[in-house]
Amino acid sequence: MSGTATTSATAQSAKMKKDESFLGKLGGTLVRKKKSKEVSDLHEEGKKAINAPMLPTGTDIHPEDTLLEENAERIMLDPTSRENLKFKDLLKVLIDWINSELEEDRIIVKDLEEDCYDGQVLQKLFEKLSGRKLNVAEVTQSEIGQKQKLQTVLEAVNEMLRPHGWTIEWSVDSIHSKNLVAIVYLLVALAMHFQAPIRLPEHVSVQVVVVKKREGILQTALVTKELTSTTEMMMGRFERDAFDTLMDHAPDKLNVVKTSLITFVNKHLNKLNLEVTELESQFADGVYLILLMGLLEDYFVPLYNFFLTPESFEQKVHNVAFAFELMQDGGLKKPKARPEDVVNLNLKSTLRVLYNLFTNYKNTE
Fold first, then answer.
1. What is the pLDDT of residues 155-212, one digit of tens each?
2. The domain spanning residue 253 has which CATH number?
3. Residues 253 and 227 in one domain
4. For 233-266, what is each residue's pLDDT tens digit?
5. Which Gene Ontology cellular component terms are annotated (predicted)?
6. Considering Cα of 324, then 357, then 232, then 251, what sign does the dihedral take?
7. Which residues form the domain of 101?
8. pTM score of the predicted model
9. Are residues 224 and 299 in the same domain?
10. Which terminus of the chain has fewer Cβ atoms in its 10 Å neighbourhood, N or C?
């Protein structure tokens, strides 16, 4: 082997050792980084375990929760409450009411969180109900503009409701952050204050997750929020009708009223060889109500407009709602009873509807 070859081999060997040394260092760095990440992950996992020992199952801590200022709190609807049937029913009643009120504005609400947070719908609804025009921009895309609009709307609402003893359960931030509970509280208050022609479901409660930061640590708790109480309490600000008094204080006279109403409806239904013996059940599917309206107003209701032999709950609700439309077409006020109440055999609701017909058509032959 020549001296040149020996020198070349020595250089190559030195390079290999250097490469091995570099790879070793790199490997060591990678291992250290991996261990560092594991320690970081473990620390984060421990932090979450400390911060949220009481967090309800199925509820996640949002990234923004960790950014809460000291003593600040964030409220979220518990996922199980979102599926509560009575809560869903309340949402539907409120959505239908808003759409009915804003029909002339061609506004259609489908989702309270997505459609109410920017203040546009709430502005239009308040203006329609109160007859007041608010000094706000019609369309606002920016977050600042939306919050300014909400501020103006909520100031007007709060100014109107506070003298009547309402507890303000909403704010600009809660509405704009799409807090469904705050939005529902606001809409229920407006519906009750303005005597909306709707029947709110009774005893609707939901659970909310309250996240608070105390001494740098997140604390969570489940809190129950009552959105509606009994109809009597909710409508206490309104004029109670004859059936509230009758059923509360003179149940013995109830049969007399029922007999009078049965006589009234049979006077007309007998023309179609139909007869009613039970008010609660025989009007629950809406068919007799529709036929009765046709007889009272002297027109034939096309069969394709309703279900003659309804089978599902939805078909029955459709029929009763259609009967209500016919009543409004005849010049009657929209019934305060909900179609769902009539379908569910709620006697007071059915009596209200029939009594309204009786007072308007008792002299009709």
1. 999 988 887 777 888 999 999 999 999 999 999 999 888 878 788 888 899 998 888 8
2. 1.10.418.10
3. no
4. 555 444 455 666 666 666 677 788 888 899 999 9
5. actin cytoskeleton; focal adhesion; lamellipodium; Z disc
6. negative
7. 74-235
8. 0.53
9. no
10. C
